[in-house]
Amino acid sequence: MTARELDGGRFVRQANRFTGTITADGEGGYPAEPGRYRLFVSLACPWAHRTLIVRRLLGLEEAIPVAVVDPIRDERGWRFPEPDPVTGATFLSELYLASDPGYEGRYTVPCVWDTVTGRLVTNDFPAITIMMGDAFAAFRSPGAPDLYPAELREEIDELNGLVYTTVNNGVYKAGFATSQDAYEEAVEALFATLGRLEERLASRRYLFGDRLTEADVRLYPTLARFDAVYHGHFKCNLRRLADHPNLWGYARDLYAIPAFGETTDFDQIKRHYYVTQRDINPSGVVPRGPLLDWTAPHGRNRVGGSGDHRS
Ligand SMILES: N[C@@H](CCC(=O)N[C@@H](CS)C(=O)NCC(=O)O)C(=O)O
Asked: Compositional bias (Gly residues) at which positions (predicted)?
């Protein structure tokens, strides 16, 4: 495995190399056409998880076919359980190198492949979910939610910025820190934000009230992995998700929506982190717990909202 980028013990996430954009009119060279693009994901990866949630919430399963890699990764990078029937690839690296033979970065999911040009369009996760709503609007199922409404974009971006830095990426900063200071800094910021979100959700069913937005899609994958992986493996253990009644109820409320629950695979999540990241878990032993009931009644109806976003 390529060494992780560290700066004085602080984990630094690499910048995305592929940043093409699919648009409804094809202006940038990539027109939205059903069946043309292939989405590559790992069910373990939180950044990929959100693309699966949005694809399902918007009813784009047929328009955007998906391929899932094996949850365990070695130094060769993500691998397919069987060669991918569309691209013929056995390793995700083949798609990156076919797109750019000089590529030297990590081979990451999620990424979107164009079957017409035989190249990767993008591996830029925030762009992928927004693009699904914008470029593929014409192919959404009737009644699909608008997750990124124009009037809320600024506020959603602001909250997403905080959640990305301190929560989504914050758990990685804590887990991959190789200095005490870097770890303390990350954990403090993480639990401060969780505390703020806990308060916010006392009077709002979702992060922006009664409607689901991109902000919920961004937060949920980290919550789904929190007690199972981040609490132990990444040392994010000041509190469990289950110790935050509003956040925990909110996470179960989302889990009850098929787009969230049916894309959440706890077994692959646990095996991926504990087996793949041997530098922080050398034995590769996967813990049995935690024993959480994600289907327990969440009682969030009392906070408001119809909860009527089920796809
Ligand atoms: N490119 C993503 C990050 C995606 C990412 O880091 N994915 C991880 C899995 S959770 C991955 O594919 N890692 C492969 C590797 O590090 O070799 C972003 O926009 O921040």
From this structure: 302-311
